Amino acid sequence: MNTITIEPCASAKAFDIVIKDKKIDIRKAEKIIDKIGRVAAATEVVLLGTLDAKPVTVYASGRVMIKECTRKEADKIGNKLIDALEKGKAIL
């Protein structure tokens, strides 16, 4: 896996996870997240859902935003999500 960075989002109480030089297959991610959390809506470029009771937005560009959480929660949720996406071959 290429570099993954977790940074505070400047515009919200959230953290961004960026997977460098990778994309996310939203359709595969939708099926994966539906098993470990809840999917509220999805298009070809973005998925909105919840994981561990926290709002999560997944972008096809390789970016994930975890909202309304602490850094520790973002680390935990981010690792859980990235691991699941890798195992499900949703990271391209």
List the main descriptive attributes of the protein structure presented here.
92 residues, alpha+beta, TATA-Binding Protein, 6-stranded antiparallel sheet, 30% helix
List the helices and strands and how they pair.
Blueprint: E1 4-8, E2 14-19, H1 26-36, E3 38-42, E4 46-51, E5 54-59, E6 63-67, H2 71-87
Antiparallel strand pairs: 1-2, 2-6, 3-4, 4-5, 5-6
Question: What can you see in these coordinates?
Answer:
The protein has 92 residues and is of the alpha+beta class. The chain has a single domain (4-87), classed as TATA-Binding Protein. It has helices at 26-36, 71-87, and strands spanning 4-8, 14-19, 38-42, 46-51, 54-59, 63-67. The chain has a 6-stranded antiparallel sheet, with helices on one face. The longest helix has 17 residues, at 71-87. It is globular and about 25 Å long. The mean pLDDT is 90.
Instruction: Kindly name the structural category.
Output: alpha+beta
Number of helices: 2
Q: How do the strands line up in the largest sheet?
A: 1-2-6-5-4-3
How large a portion of the residues is in β-strands, by DSSP E?
Answer: 35-45%
CATH topology: the name is TATA-Binding Protein
Q: What is the CATH class?
A: Alpha Beta
Main sheet summary: 6 strands, antiparallel
Number of domains: 1
The geometry reads as globular
Reported CATH architecture: 2-Layer Sandwich
* Helix/strand order: EEHEEEEH
CATH superfamily descriptor: TATA-Binding Protein
Number of strands: 6
Low-confidence stretches: none
